[in-house]
Amino acid sequence: MLRHISPALAALALVLSAAQVAVTPGIAAAQPIYPLPDPDPFYAAPADLDRAKPGDVLGVRSMPALLAFPGTTVTMIKFRSTNSAGDPIAATTTVLTPHNHVPGGPLLSYQHIINGLGTRCAVSRVLYTDDPNLAVREAPALNAVLLRGWSVALPDHLGPTSAYGAAKLGGMITLDGIRAARQVAELGVATSPIALFGYSGGGMATGWAAALAPTYAPELDIAGAAEGGVPMNLVKMTEGLGYSRHPAFGLALAAAIGLEREYPTRLPISDHLNAFGLATRDRIANGCTNEILAAGAGHSVLDVASSTSLADDPSARSVLEENSLELYDGVPKTPIYQWRSHEDALIPVASIDNTVRRYCAAGASVRSALFPSPDHLTTAVLGAPAAMAWIEERFRGTPAPSDC
């Protein structure tokens, strides 16, 4: 379970120190490194992508049945979305349709935690991998949802360049994936009530989707969003971070690379790596969790950086700010269920509380749940059943309770 929770949050924190490094004068600039394109042409962007609107369907493909989800039809959708610079991109989502789904039945968009830089780490690929290290361990929980007759959308929310760490991007892809699914008639979700669910890194994509929806996808009537353990302020995570060695530092570097892919001119991490840092970057450029962890285990920012003089750079800082929900002015219109531990060792819980207070002051409906464990992973497990029960009530049309 380490690959699903703790390293992801450690990475999101540690990488921000990586964003503080600066190139030593006289060293030639290095270009960002992007993943190898997926060899399957279905993932490729069409030449006329700029003519499509966000959420427009670019392709639909029926996928083989999955033993992990018995009695479920699997459909992959390619659609037009938007990156953090406002440019069109082609993204993908996978929709699971249970045998007992009826037209108009609920649609749950589940934002899976994706720790990786390679295209093979995307959920649509992981569903069909024979690598046990990449298996979807949430399958039992998702099967419980499918048994209720709900359809489940699993967006590849890191986008076509596997921009690990780019949370706002994940929100836009999530919303456009829902738009696309509603356009595919055979899925029977054109009029379905919609809900969002995600924890930790998946909670970031969920939280951003909920906050962006009123302006980015105002036509979507989202019944509710359950988000747990969400890192809501990347700047504050940086400020409390030192330069100690960490067993999950590989994921920290991976998140730095992912953010550079999304913001190549504003956060040019590759310019600021030493020879060892560049070699490690190249080694993990197409890696998933285990390869990334192995490459960076026991290292720190000081091992890969040429200097640490960019801590106050306004451009780098603005990237972190733009991916911090606490600092985003938008307020969700949909009811929110958020859960966290009293004192989470991996994320600044004060940022969650500040965000909730701001949402409440703006008239949002927020239900908050606290759990006594300081362990991030344990809180995910403890809180998920209540969060799913809360979503089920929203699908039934029960008015959302609020702690505001």
Automatic annotation (TrEMBL):
State the signal peptide span: 1-22
Which Pfam families has this protein been placed in? LIP (PF03583)
Keywords assigned by UniProt, alphabetized: Signal
Q: Identify this protein by name.
A: Lipase family protein
